[in-house]
Design a protein that fits this description.
alpha+beta
């Protein structure tokens, strides 16, 4: 098995993937654009060391990033050499496991995505499963039990050298500020192997849920179980929590795990609402709060950024956000986000115009009569109220910002939904 993993064709495919992903370097400082030269000079030695069991992975570099729901997410950044080896292992093992994974698992799998998981949840709701058990695993990637995971891997992987190499990657330490901390559990996010390993251990959960006849969707460590009654939902939550902790050695966050109705539930940033006895997909309130915060961040008046540069950045964010939420019924939300963005841009312009004379002159260029331009230029109202004044609303309007390149949420959402509805 290890010889096949290190076959030059598999390694070349792994190299293309690692270099395409780019990403920051590990503790040795090597970047992805330096990997080709290193392999040309050292591949045979590296391969021999791995095959003979002499290779030891470098410790990973610890990075913390803010989580959307609060708190910090820990990432472990391996060196590019270790990323290459892990990628080679992952892409060779994935086909061996893919056929056995549950059809209700959608995360980190070829041909599957978050949209499919949400639409499957909608399908369950419309079949009458209107109580949702939302299981929250506390720091899942940091708490994976190594012994349990290795036991599951050994059922399919018979090559002891491959198992030893994977175990080395699991137990390699994590460096922060020059201090290395050993790892006895967890498979930190940031490595190419982590997604596959997470699916392998959580496939045990999938199998148990299927054996018990439950309707569910799982995307990585996000799992929602759909049942018909409140009583069933609470019973399922209690039993599955015990199973996760006793059998899979994971920790359930009992404060965040809950039984909810569709309108209060959250699945991968989406929620649901009912119209004419049918459940439809909508954007979860927290997702709207986050995008509004991002709009405010990009349009802060304290930043001396040209308006055209702000708009370019906003358009980039908007396209990514709308691409993800395009399956939701969200026309009114998109219009509201456009109004908020244009208001913030008007506030930016009002500040850039600065003094009374400059504001008066710019208003007159927009076609405002001299007296009205003079009155508004001398206003003592705050930026927000001024941005919503009738004069600015009619002059710095949708057409004005469209000429500057701002198309906004609504236009892109309309294009996305009319051109790609058939994909779902």
């Amino acid at each position: 098995m290890l010889e096949e993993i290190l076959d030059i064709r598999n390694v070349q495919r792994a190299f293309r993937q690692v270099t395409a992903n780019r990403g920051a370097g590990g503790i040795d400082g090597m970047q992805t654009d330096e990997l080709r030269d290193y392999l040309n000079a050292n591949w045979q030695t590296l391969r021999t060391d791995i095959l003979e069991g002499n290779y030891r992975p470098e410790v990973v570099r610890k990075v913390e990033i803010p989580k959307s729901g609060g708190g910090r997410r820990i990432l472990g950044i391996p060196t590019v050499i270790d990323r290459l080896i892990q990628q080679a292992i992952s892409q060779w093992l994935s086909p061996k496991y893919e056929g056995g994974f549950s059809s209700n698992s959608y995360g980190f799998r070829p041909g599957r995505n978050a949209h499919q998981a949400v639409l499957k949840g909608q399908e369950y709701l419309n079949s009458g499963y209107i109580w949702i058990v939302e299981m929250d695993l506390d720091k899942f990637f940091d708490r994976v039990n190594h012994d349990k995971l290795m036991s599951l891997l050994s059922l399919k992987i018979k090559d002891k050298r491959t198992l030893k190499l994977i175990r080395c990657y699991l137990s390699s330490g994590m460096m922060e500020n020059g201090v290395v901390t050993p790892r006895r559990e967890g498979t930190p996010q940031g490595s190419p192997l982590s997604p596959l390993l997470s699916n392998i251990i959580l496939d045990e959960l999938d199998s148990t849920l299927e054996e018990r006849g439950h309707c569910f969707v799982r995307y990585a460590d996000d799992c929602s179980i759909y049942v018909r009654s409140s009583k069933s939902a609470h019973r399922v939550m209690d039993k599955i929590a015990v199973y996760l902790e006793d059998r899979l050695k994971l920790k359930v966050n009992r404060e965040k795990s809950k039984v909810s109705r569709p309108t209060q539930s959250t699945l991968l940033g989406f929620s649901f609402y009912k119209v004419n006895k049918r459940w439809k997909v909508r954007i979860a309130p927290k997702s709207l709060v986050r995008i509004k915060d991002e709009i405010r961040k990009q349009t802060m008046r304290s930043r001396s950024t040209p308006l055209t540069s702000r708009i370019l950045k906003l358009e980039e964010i908007i396209r990514g956000w709308v691409n993800y939420f395009s399956i939701a019924e969200a026309k009114s939300y998109m219009r509201g986000l456009d109004e908020l963005t244009r208001k913030r841009l008007r506030m930016n312009l009002w500040k850039q115009w600065k003094g009374v004379r400059s504001r008066e002159r710019n208003l007159m260029k927009l076609g405002v009569a001299k007296l009205r331009a003079f009155q508004l230029a001398n206003t003592r109202k705050a930026y927000c109220r001024t941005a919503n004044s009738p004069i600015l609303l009619t002059t710095l309007n949708k057409a004005y910002f469209s000429k500057l390149g701002f198309e906004g949420f609504t236009n892109y959402y309309y294009w996305k939904t009319t051109h790609q509805t058939k994909l779902f």
